[in-house]
Prior knowledge:
Number of strands: 14
Bound molecules: adenosine-5'-triphosphate, magnesium ion
CATH class of the largest domain: Alpha Beta
Number of domains: 2
Strand order of the largest sheet: 6-7-8-3-9-10
Helix content: 25-40%
Strand content: 25-35%
Shape: elongated
Amino acid sequence: MSTAAVRAEGVIRHFGDVKALNGVSIEFEPGMIYGLLGPNGAGKTTLIRVLTTLLRPDAGTAHVAGVDVLANPTEARRRLGLAGQSAAVDEFLTGEENLHMIGRLYGLSKRDARKRADEVLERMTLTDAANRQVKTYSGGMRRRLDLAASMVGRPEVLFLDEPTTGIDPGSRIDIWGLMADLVDDGTTILMTTQYLEEADQLADRVGVIDDGILIAEGTADELKDEMGGSIVELSVRDADLENTLGALTSALGAGISFDAGRKLISVPAPNGPLELMAVSRTLDAASLIPTQLEIRKPTLDDVFLKITGNGESASTAAGGES
Ligand SMILES: Nc1ncnc2c1ncn2[C@@H]1O[C@H](COP(=O)(O)OP(=O)(O)OP(=O)(O)O)[C@@H](O)[C@H]1O
Ligand SMILES: [Mg+2]
């Protein structure tokens, strides 16, 4: 039997013509936070639904905490927790009542269920709102209650689908702290996120899913290293844009892109300062003065845009401009 926290192989799930999952294999050890990144519609929620027994795949296998989720869904449910992308709590009950009910469903005594409810409410800083009906909660409070609900059963593996979407920055940091505490207590977490910075901060491993396929995996640093070094970024006055792109492209070759939204020109800089100096010399020779010029390390955003292909439009735009 596998000891991996999650092990899925060749998971396929189609909805009619939509190939939501197209052969996903994923495996990671207990005791970590695994961050699953991907654009809207990539298949993240579908994968979580398969792993948490809510959806049967068309093909493939999936184990959570060593339990085959397809063969033994009841046993798997005992070992996993889920905070889905949309709320799963009862609007008309109070926060405390919701959590108490979930504790009872997990087989806790009344007393233990109450104790556990109070513990997780406090961890989620919801104690003051514990006795209010959920329908009076703000969006962020509901999200926190959802997370609290997923922790009541002390799961071995916790699945969090966009745990911090719609949560203010302060509370987001609280939730990050809470997730780290859970891992210290022995819980393994698989989280999806749209915030690359969040995966960078929290996740021990990062997987990128696109069009139902896992297209990259590694630590955040490994993924960044694949970008090959640093990036020189500069902006110029609108009137100078075309000339600048032309000059840089003839001096430094391909790979130069322009992000029209941020009005930033990016130049790959595998050798760091060397490319920065080359950019500077090229601009100087053409009597072009940038309004901003800097060199920086790649972020997970850069990786994400590059491998999901969403960055292509930037280079195409540059090609069109020059
Ligand atoms: N029950 C369903 N019936 C039909 N199509 C579905 C169903 N569930 C998901 N899909 C489709 O499968 C694809 C993957 O959806 P999924 O919800 O897994 O994406 P996601 O990565 O979670 O996206 P998001 O970031 O928007 O939450 C999408 O094209 C979606 O429309
Ligand atoms: Mg989703």
